[in-house]
Design a protein that fits this description.
By secondary structure, the protein is of the alpha+beta class. It has five helices and eight strands. InterPro entries: SUFU-like_domain.
């Protein structure tokens, strides 16, 4: 069952979205210098989804992207996990990654190499809404049907959803209209890493996250990093 219906666009949802757009940059801005660029959707389905992007700085030499809109629709979490029903996604990129305006000026064949992270963030954020499901710590997703198929012109074949490590713990939750919103980090996975998670019966995602921490790898997409599996 999905909730892709006009009934989901109501004054309560729209009010939450307005407050979210104010609260998110104010909160994250305590931990990242500079003003973010906001990529507003000009045409949305009944779930409106924007992305806030902070440029690299001397203190934080990476791009930081955070979705805004997923948390306006509580996820269908398991019983007893209602505290985690509202979330937004966090993804970082290397400091030398082209800006969105630069990507837009590229030929399509080259742009695909750099545009896929934003598209994947949006697809993943909408998945919970369209399929009446949820995203939480330890979940993983694959780029395509098989483990070894990758994102466009990429070496990565999946994403692990885990804690945000590039910012202090205080940055990973904030309040909107009395509700706690959790920031979930997205970790790009090589095929061998995704295979390890999927083929380890108990705790594969937990073990992979432990390895990321030990290797000082935080959430994001970093082409060329050493494989950890």
């Amino acid at each position: 069952m999905t909730h892709f219906s006009v009934s989901q666009r109501n004054s309560k949802v729209e009010q939450f979205e307005r407050h979210l757009i104010e609260a998110l940059p104010e909160h994250i801005g305590q931990f990242i210098d500079g003003e973010p660029t906001v990529f507003h959707e000009t045409h949305s389905d009944h779930m409106h989804l924007d992305i806030f992007m902070w440029e690299p700085t001397a203190q934080r030499p990476i791009w930081t992207m955070v979705t805004a809109g997923l948390s306006a629709h509580p996820m269908k979490v398991p019983a007893g996990a209602e505290y985690y029903e509202r979330a937004e996604l966090v993804l970082t990129l290397p400091g030398d990654w082209p800006s969105v305006s630069e990507i837009q000026r590229m030929p399509d064949s080259r742009a695909k190499r750099f545009s896929w992270p934003i598209l994947v963030m949006k697809q993943l954020a909408r998945m919970t809404y369209l399929y009446d499901t949820w995203l939480g710590y330890g979940h993983s997703t694959r780029a395509r049907r098989t483990i070894h198929q990758t994102y466009p012109k990429s070496e990565f074949s999946g994403l692990l959803i885990e804690q945000v490590l590039s910012m202090p713990p205080d940055a990973t939750t904030f309040m909107v209209e009395g509700h706690t919103v959790h920031c979930l980090g997205l970790y790009a996975l090589y095929p061998a890493e995704l295979q390890f998670i999927l083929e380890t019966p108990h705790g594969g995602a937990h073990e992979m996250m432990h390895r990321f921490e030990n290797a000082n790898v935080h959430e994001g997409i970093f082409p060329g990093r050493p494989a950890i599996a």
